[in-house]
Design brief:
Oligomer: single chain
Helix content: 25-40%
Structural class: alpha/beta
Number of strands: 16
Strand content: 15-25%
Order of helices and strands: EEHEEHHEHHHEHEHEHEHEHEHHEEEEEH
Number of helices: 14
Shape: globular
Distance between the termini: 11 Å
Length: 417
């Protein structure tokens, strides 16, 4: 892996997570490694065709976001603020003393403040225009998480929003790496956030046939790569990574969790929602990431798969993984525990992949009993977490519209050696 120690590799110096598995990185990691699903019946979705979800439990805006008026921000922005603050603390950075002009923010979201939009539209239709909040647009515009983070952190570099559906968070991390490589910033706060567990979104996904209808068994509903999978479970959350040039991180003695050594992006250009059946362009994104990392397929120890639990996605992705790695890489989908956090998923899973590399542990795929014929030869981790060295790991993300993003992370210890 000659390229992994190059100056182009970005150091991951901080992580922050707000997920159905926990408020914070450590709580999320423990629950994901336990393999216990977070899906449950959701009274707030009563009347929707599928009334189950993976919610972030115990999140209190006044306590966790703080400030006099946390309610001015949509839930997706609140999640992003909390995750970003954790990531910056974890990186041992102090926003009050950094050069804000050299700090970038890149946040992805599939839908922005959709809960605010739904609520205010309902008010407009049922009560009239006088009850519509003047804060509606600032709360629901998709760029507002990035904008609010820039304000909160005093970051005056590029502040960008990425929208590639369920690949949005992973796209943000890749864009952040490119900004560092282009010397547009010295520090990048990057990730994704979404709060799409709403009646309209749940209904729309159910009508599209994307959601699991295992309403009598919520905990068993999200079952990636399982032969009895029937869709994903809608979830919410946020994941944020702090990226720096490896040399800059070393110069300030920063703790480095892993290195982002490569990334690849491609478009299926095939169908609005269905993946290209042969997965040729997802495969190409993975090959790009490995090329940029200076690595070979045989170097890959672990893949955190997109693995939504929908029949088409898992079948296509499983075939791609088998064609690339055979049974040589330990594969998992953490959506079995967390559900599908939409635009946040790629960032959260990138963070979990970093932890797998750093800690030499691959989380299990929840609810897995048996695979389709095309995935039976994959080394799919299930049952319990697996302790094993992880020198190089990939995190796959795919989104409606045919967006594919693959991130390649390597061990900081391996690269230094």
């Amino acid at each position: 892996m000659s390229g992994t120690g190059s100056g182009r590799a970005a150091a991951v110096t901080g992580l922050g997570l707000v997920t159905p598995a926990g408020l914070g990185t450590e709580q999320t990691w423990r629950r994901v490694c336990s393999g216990r699903s977070t899906a449950a019946e959701d009274p707030a979705l009563a009347g929707a065709p599928v009334a189950l979800s993976c919610r972030v439990e115990g999140f209190e805006p006044r306590r966790h976001v703080g400030g006099a008026q946390p309610w001015r921000d949509d839930r997706f922005t609140q999640f992003a603020l909390v995750a970003a603050r954790e990531a910056v603390r974890d990186a041992a950075l102090e926003p009050r003393s950094w050069d804000g002009a050299r700090v970038a923010v890149v946040l992805g979201s599939a839908a922005g403040g959709v809960a605010t939009y739904e609520e205010q539209h309902h008010r407009f239709l049922t009560t009239g225009h006088r009850v519509v909040s003047p804060l509606t647009l600032p709360a629901f515009l998709p760029n507002m998480a990035a904008g609010r983070l820039a304000i909160d952190l005093g970051a005056h570099g590029p502040a960008l929003h990425t929208a590639t559906a369920c690949a949005s968070g992973a796209t943000a991390v890749a864009v952040a790496a490119m900004l560092l490589d282009a010397d547009a910033c010295d520090i990048a706060v990057a990730g994704g956030s979404d709060a799409m567990v709403t009646p309209l979104c749940a209904t729309a996904f159910a009508r599209a046939g994307a959601l699991s209808r295992r309403v009598g068994d919520p905990a068993g509903a999200s079952r990636p790569f399982d032969t009895e999978r029937d869709g994903f479970v809608l979830a919410e959350g946020a994941g944020v990574l702090v990226l720096e040039r490896a040399a800059d991180a070393a110069a300030r003695g920063a703790p480095v969790r892993a290195l982002l050594a490569g990334h690849g992006s491609s478009a299926d250009a095939h169908h609005t929602v269905a993946p290209e059946p042969e997965g040729r362009h997802l495969r190409r994104a993975a090959e790009q990431a490995l090329d940029r990392a200076g690595a070979a397929r045989t170097d890959v120890d672990h893949v955190n798969a997109h693995g939504t639990g929908t029949p088409l996605n898992d079948r296509t992705e499983g075939a791609v993984l088998h064609s690339l790695f055979g049974s040589g890489a330990a594969v998992t989908s953490t959506k079995g525990v967390t559900g599908h956090m939409m635009g946040a998923a790629g960032a959260v899973e990138a963070a979990l992949t970093v932890l797998a590399v750093q800690r030499g542990t691959v989380p299990p795929t929840a609810n897995f009993r048996g695979a389709d014929p095309g995935a039976r030869e994959l080394d799919l981790v299930h049952g319990t977490a697996r302790a094993r060295p992880v020198g190089l790991a990939l995190s796959n993300s795919c989104g409606f519209g045919g967006h594919n993003v693959v991130l390649a992370f390597v061990s900081a210890a391996t690269s230094a050696g």
